Amino acid sequence: MTLNWEQVIVHAEDPAALGQWWAEALGWVVVYSDDDEYEIRPAEDVTPGLDFVRLNEARKAKSRLHLDFRPDNQAAEVDRLIAHGARRVDIGQGEQSWVVLADPEGNEFCILGQRAQ
Protein backbone atom coordinates (compact mmCIF):
# COMPACT_ATOMS: atom_id res chain seq x y z
CA MET A 1 0.00 0.00 0.00
CA THR A 2 1.30 3.45 -0.93
CA LEU A 3 0.15 6.87 0.21
CA ASN A 4 0.95 9.98 -1.78
CA TRP A 5 0.76 13.37 -0.11
CA GLU A 6 -1.70 15.41 -2.19
CA GLN A 7 -2.20 18.68 -0.29
CA VAL A 8 -2.57 20.55 2.96
CA ILE A 9 -6.04 21.95 3.66
CA VAL A 10 -6.12 25.47 5.05
CA HIS A 11 -9.43 26.70 6.43
CA ALA A 12 -10.03 30.28 5.38
CA GLU A 13 -12.62 33.00 5.75
CA ASP A 14 -11.87 34.10 2.16
CA PRO A 15 -10.27 31.17 0.28
CA ALA A 16 -9.63 33.08 -2.94
CA ALA A 17 -7.94 36.06 -1.28
CA LEU A 18 -5.80 33.93 1.01
CA GLY A 19 -5.01 31.40 -1.71
CA GLN A 20 -3.96 34.15 -4.11
CA TRP A 21 -1.78 35.71 -1.39
CA TRP A 22 0.03 32.38 -0.90
CA ALA A 23 0.26 31.74 -4.67
CA GLU A 24 2.04 35.06 -5.09
CA ALA A 25 4.20 34.57 -1.98
CA LEU A 26 5.36 31.14 -3.16
CA GLY A 27 5.32 31.70 -6.92
CA TRP A 28 2.85 28.81 -7.32
CA VAL A 29 0.02 28.31 -9.82
CA VAL A 30 -3.73 28.11 -9.26
CA VAL A 31 -5.09 24.69 -10.23
CA TYR A 32 -8.70 25.06 -9.06
CA SER A 33 -10.99 27.74 -7.72
CA ASP A 34 -14.64 28.32 -6.93
CA ASP A 35 -16.47 30.35 -4.28
CA ASP A 36 -15.49 27.98 -1.46
CA GLU A 37 -12.14 26.54 -2.52
CA TYR A 38 -8.85 27.74 -4.00
CA GLU A 39 -6.09 25.23 -4.71
CA ILE A 40 -2.48 26.09 -5.54
CA ARG A 41 0.55 23.93 -6.39
CA PRO A 42 4.21 24.44 -7.28
CA ALA A 43 3.23 23.53 -10.87
CA GLU A 44 0.04 22.21 -12.49
CA ASP A 45 1.02 18.54 -12.08
CA VAL A 46 3.24 18.79 -8.98
CA THR A 47 2.03 17.92 -5.48
CA PRO A 48 1.72 18.50 -2.61
CA GLY A 49 -0.26 21.70 -2.84
CA LEU A 50 -2.24 23.98 -0.58
CA ASP A 51 -6.04 23.89 -0.76
CA PHE A 52 -7.83 26.83 0.86
CA VAL A 53 -11.36 25.88 1.88
CA ARG A 54 -14.01 28.23 3.26
CA LEU A 55 -14.78 27.91 6.96
CA ASN A 56 -17.30 30.42 8.25
CA GLU A 57 -15.89 30.39 11.76
CA ALA A 58 -13.23 32.63 13.27
CA ARG A 59 -10.01 31.05 14.47
CA LYS A 60 -10.06 30.58 18.24
CA ALA A 61 -6.48 29.66 19.17
CA LYS A 62 -2.92 29.30 17.93
CA SER A 63 -2.64 27.19 14.78
CA ARG A 64 -1.94 23.52 15.47
CA LEU A 65 -0.15 23.18 12.14
CA HIS A 66 2.12 25.65 10.43
CA LEU A 67 4.52 25.62 7.52
CA ASP A 68 8.29 26.10 7.75
CA PHE A 69 10.27 27.56 4.85
CA ARG A 70 14.06 27.64 4.46
CA PRO A 71 15.13 30.43 2.09
CA ASP A 72 18.58 31.20 0.73
CA ASN A 73 18.50 34.58 2.49
CA GLN A 74 16.32 34.73 5.61
CA ALA A 75 16.41 38.51 6.11
CA ALA A 76 15.58 39.25 2.47
CA GLU A 77 12.72 36.74 2.47
CA VAL A 78 11.27 38.09 5.72
CA ASP A 79 11.40 41.62 4.29
CA ARG A 80 9.78 40.45 1.03
CA LEU A 81 6.94 38.66 2.81
CA ILE A 82 6.28 41.57 5.16
CA ALA A 83 6.12 43.89 2.13
CA HIS A 84 3.65 41.36 0.63
CA GLY A 85 1.37 41.61 3.68
CA ALA A 86 2.73 39.15 6.24
CA ARG A 87 3.38 40.35 9.77
CA ARG A 88 5.74 39.29 12.53
CA VAL A 89 4.07 37.47 15.42
CA ASP A 90 5.13 36.36 18.86
CA ILE A 91 3.87 32.90 19.76
CA GLY A 92 6.22 32.57 22.69
CA GLN A 93 9.20 31.50 20.60
CA GLY A 94 11.71 33.78 22.38
CA GLU A 95 15.06 34.39 20.70
CA GLN A 96 15.42 31.78 17.96
CA SER A 97 17.14 31.36 14.61
CA TRP A 98 13.76 31.39 12.85
CA VAL A 99 11.26 34.19 12.33
CA VAL A 100 7.55 33.62 12.92
CA LEU A 101 5.23 35.42 10.52
CA ALA A 102 1.47 35.34 9.95
CA ASP A 103 -0.42 35.52 6.68
CA PRO A 104 -3.34 37.97 6.20
CA GLU A 105 -5.76 35.66 8.07
CA GLY A 106 -3.34 35.13 10.98
CA ASN A 107 -1.98 31.67 10.09
CA GLU A 108 1.54 31.40 11.49
CA PHE A 109 4.49 30.16 9.45
CA CYS A 110 8.24 30.20 10.02
CA ILE A 111 11.12 31.45 7.94
CA LEU A 112 14.07 29.36 9.02
CA GLY A 113 17.70 30.40 9.13
CA GLN A 114 20.49 28.73 7.23
CA ARG A 115 20.92 25.01 7.81
CA ALA A 116 23.99 24.12 9.87
CA GLN A 117 26.76 22.87 7.61
UniProtKB/TrEMBL annotation:
CDD domains to which the protein is assigned, alphabetical: VOC
Species name: Streptomyces luteolus
Domain VOC: 2-114
Family annotation (PANTHER family): CONSERVED PROTEIN, HYPOTHETICAL FUSION PROTEIN
Protein name: VOC family protein
Family annotation (Gene3D superfamilies): 2,3-Dihydroxybiphenyl 1,2-Dioxygenase, domain 1 (3.10.180.10)
One Pfam family here: Glyoxalase_6
InterPro entries the UniProt entry points to: Glyas_Bleomycin-R_OHBP_Dase (IPR029068), Glyoxalase_6 (IPR041581), VOC_core (IPR037523)
